[in-house]
Write a structure and sequence with these properties.
The complex is a heterodimer of chains A (247) and B (385). With 247 residues, chain A is an alpha/beta fold. Chain A is built from nine helices and ten strands. In chain A, helix 3 crosses helix 4 and helix 3 runs parallel beside helix 5. The longest helix of chain A has 18 residues. Classes of the chains: A alpha/beta (247), B alpha/beta (385). Chains A and B meet through helix 4 and helix 6 of A and helix 2, helix 3 and helix 12 of B.
């Protein structure tokens, strides 16, 4: 991945298992969100491929690429709700565009999706009338609108209190179980990482690539990399000097 | 668990449909077909009618045995059905549905019970009230904003160190120098149009030279001030509103307040002062360019010479015309600055509010400029100037 001439991450190679919760973790500024944006087609890697099954996201024609993108649901870091629309319209828009449902059926689905994230009755509110936690949940409801196969969540717990954060974690796990979706999550929250994540990659800005890959619990206890152990142990470490992570 | 079947995995063989039978205690609804495709979904009015006919406390048995595929459409339908049954005091039993559907319905019901927040519904009388009260409140708010700016101006002069010179110079540059090109173009064309129209009429009476009087007086007394104000309203007023609304959305204004910096003194006063100072300059410039525009038409379309045109203009345009036009430009500048900044500062905290603020600022400024110009005309007429 590169911005112009500047290479941010190189030799990034990993596989996400179907139906798993997969996390991209690492220090601030290491390129986690950039990697996620590449995975959802908002950026193209300067070299290499992003494969979904046998489909290369960046080599597909427009029609196939759009069909593939419709299998994704994305929750952005700041929710990215369309501020000129009500919460209900935010969720209804993808359904109106890509489903053959009647307006009544779409309204029922919107109410249902909102009830899944605990926002029943909030459909008529504007995004600016929602609290931070409610915005996250509304963003999640929009991401779920088309029953995505893969749900991408960019720091879903950022800015939430511990209780809301835990509730959101529970919701993500329940949705995964109910919908059978694969979840790719970018997060700093250690509690979330150890609670819901099956597999993860650890990105490092200095190494410029993936420095660890595996189950977070195992990486915390057995990783050979001191930085990974320190990160996953919240900085409590066994004595090896650590360099500061740029932020 | 039967997971939702994705649209890519295959076309629906048969769309969703329902068969209805009488049951021992009420109705039996058999859901059939592929519930991935919303086309052909049973009409909600049809289902409501059925439920109404079932009678109170009847048992609605819903069977999903013959469903061949499903997506969120199915649990959404069942969730709506559940709500309808609860409202009509009917008992609902779901049988033979995939485990995932039950799990989603359970998740939906437990989350929904958490804390529903309902939006504020406006009653008709309240809507009328707000329709009547809103313009009054807007007027009061603008008057308040004018007061705040005046107080801010005093404060800025008393503590001159608070207004950063660098910010102020940047405002002068943006408001004045960067507007020269568009002011030149518009003023030249307005002068040329006045000259052309005037020349055609005056030539019929053999007094073509009076085109200089017409262009000179029209530009100096009215057109230069009003056209400059409209250009500045569209260009600078909208920019002020959009800029401050974006700052509001990004909490930048809150950040100023937490540092005990008054947004009025820090953001509005430099902008309004810059406009008040630059508008007369732009006005004089627009007068000159407009007169040149009229002159170009006059000398190319008739036998009037440059010297004769300029001499006629000098005789026609009195100093009082400049004073009236100059006063207008100052007032228009203050109006555009205050309304633009006020609209931006009062905007909501979302991206949509930025465009709304910009639109509102431009419309308010242009209407305000024309209304003030009419007041100026009445006052000038009353004072016989």
């Amino acid at each position: 991945m590169a911005f112009g001439e500047k290479v941010v991450q190189k030799d990034v190679s990993f596989t996400v298992a179907n139906g798993s919760v997969f996390a991209i973790i690492g220090g601030s500024g290491c390129g986690k969100s950039t990697l996620l944006k590449h995975m959802v087609g908002l950026g193209a890697p300067s070299a290499g491929h992003i494969l979904y099954g046998d489909q290369d996201l960046n080599a597909l024609g427009d029609k196939d690429r759009n069909r593939l993108l419709r299998r994704f649901g994305v929750l952005f870091q700041a929710s990215a709700l369309w501020s000129s629309m009500t919460v209900a319209d935010n969720i209804a828009l993808p359904l109106e565009l890509y489903s053959s449902c009647s307006p009544q059926a779409i309204a029922d689905i919107v109410v249902f999706k909102l009830s899944l994230v605990g926002l029943e009755g909030c459909g008529a509110l504007m995004p600016s009338e929602l609290s931070g936690g409610m915005r996250k949940r509304a963003g999640l409801a929009r991401a779920l609108a088309l029953d995505p196969e893969i749900l991408f969540l960019d720091e879903p717990s950022a800015g939430l209190d511990p209780v809301s954060s835990r509730n959101l974690d529970e919701l993500i796990v329940q949705l995964r179980e109910c919908l059978g979706a694969t979840i790719v999550i970018v997060t700093h929250e250690l509690a979330s990482i150890f609670t819901i994540v099956d597999d993860c990659v650890f990105l490092d800005s200095v190494a410029g690539g993936v420095i660890a890959h595996g189950n977070p619990g195992q990486l915390r206890d057995h990783s050979e990399n001191a930085i990974v152990r320190a990160f996953l142990n919240r900085g409590e470490f066994d004595g090896t000097n650590l360099r500061a992570s740029p932020s | 668990m039967l997971k939702p079947i994705r649209p890519e995995s295959g076309k629906a063989t048969t769309g969703p449909h329902i068969s209805v039978e009488d049951g021992p205690e009420g109705l039996i609804l058999r859901l059939k077909g592929d519930w991935r495709d919303g086309a052909g979904l049973p009409d909600s009015a049809f289902v409501e009618n059925l439920l109404h006919k079932a009678g109170p406390n009847a048992l609605i048995l819903v069977s999903g045995r013959e469903i061949t595929g499903w997506s969120s459409i199915l649990p959404a339908f069942l969730s709506a059905l559940r709500a309808e049954c609860a409202a009509l005091n009917l008992r609902l039993r779901l049988e033979h549905f995939p485990e995932g559907v039950h799990a989603l319905l359970k998740l939906s019901s437990c989350r929904a019970a958490a804390r529903p927040v309902t939006p504020e519904r406006k009653q008709p009388l309240m809507a009328i009230n707000s329709w009547l009260v809103r313009p009054w409140r807007a007027g009061v708010n603008i008057a308040g904003a004018v007061g705040e700016v005046v107080l801010g101006l005093f404060a800025a002069f008393q503590t001159s160190g608070k207004m950063r010179g660098r910010d102020f110079r940047r405002q002068l540059l943006e408001v004045g120098v960067q507007a020269l090109a568009i002011v030149s173009l518009v003023s030249f064309l307005v002068g040329a149009i006045l000259g052309f129209v005037g020349l055609v009429q005056l030539e019929m009476f053999g007094v073509s030279i009076y085109v200089a009087d017409l262009v000179g007086i029209a530009m100096v007394r009215e057109m230069a001030a009003i056209m400059t104000a409209i250009i500045i309203a569209g260009r600078t007023g909208a920019a002020f509103a959009a800029n401050l609304a974006a700052m509001q959305a990004n909490e930048e204004i809150d950040a100023l307040k937490t540092l005990a910096v008054s947004p009025v003194e820090h953001l509005i006063v430099p902008r309004v002062i810059a406009l008040i100072l630059m508008m007369p300059v732009l006005y004089i410039y627009a007068c000159a360019v407009g007169i040149i525009g009229g002159m170009v038409i006059a000398i190319t379309s008739s036998d009037i010479t440059v010297l004769a045109y300029l001499d006629e203009t000098r005789q026609a345009v009195a100093a009082k015309q400049f004073i009236i036009g100059g006063m207008k430009s100052v007032v228009f500048g203050a109006l555009v600055g205050i309304v633009g900044c006020y609209t931006g500062l009062r905007a909501g905290r979302s991206a949509a509010e930025v465009s709304r603020a910009a639109t509102s600022a431009v419309v308010s400024c242009i209407v305000g400029v024309i209304a003030l110009d009419a007041i100026f005309a009445l006052c000038a007429n009353a004072l016989k100037v």
